Amino acid sequence: MDIGHRRHIATMITFGVIMVSISGCSSEDEFTGYGPAAGEYRDAAAKLTLPGGAKGFPGLAKPEEETSYQQGFGLTQAQFYWRCAWEREWLDTQGSDGKRAKVALFELQKAHSMEFMSKKHLDDLGRSNFDAYMEQAKLGDPSGFQQHFKANCKEMDRL
Amino acid sequence: MNRVRVVVIMATAIGTVMALTGGAQADPGRPNNHIEGDLPVGTALVKYSTYRTVPASWPNVDIYYDNKPDISIKLGLRHILGYQITDSVELGSTSRTYRLGTGIDAGTEFAINARSTDYAFGANDRHWGGQLYW
Fold it and tell me: Is pTM, for the whole model, over 0.90?
């Protein structure tokens, strides 16, 4: 194989790599419509358990206008709702029903391995706050989860 | 000479790939971090899925806007249950700071909503970016 032929092959490979890379990160690929996003939500919710007596997952609200969702939006919505539901369960029971409160903390501990708490979807402060709230809760201090619930979850019944 | 050409081509390719494969939104693990995103074709509202947390020390969210697409954009902040918690702010000229939210409770986790103010065609540059301060 002569030098010119090798150079031609190298050029073609390079061109191919560029084209694959461009198509792989097309901005259109990272957005979905309502249907796929709602499907993400349903799939995520199906893997989760809510506290006994809680109403079920509300599902992804239908948009009032044309909306595009970044990949992961539906999933994170379901998992954030799950977190809010268990925070409320713990806050409601931690002073009165030790068994239910223990179950709630056990459930909340699972958040560490869930997608919505990954670096892709939540910043370092959000994750470190959660760790601090868990440690406080284990010591019987509800202030961390109280603050988080007040700032983020108080409107969950509107859904 | 041929080897030099191949090296140049490969370096260009690697540089192009690295530039193009940067995330749609920046690594959220740093305070005051770079943020960027793409808008879809059309005028649809876009809901991004990276959340950031308002610290106790600073209740405002600002963006230093430095990468303007072909169309004008508006940004707003959305909380984890899906509601937008601020009025949308239209970003005009670049190299200036826009306030996206004020007086936000410590511990609030928020993400970005974005939309183009005009119809965005496929041929338009639909990539925006800046530095987010919160």
Answer: no
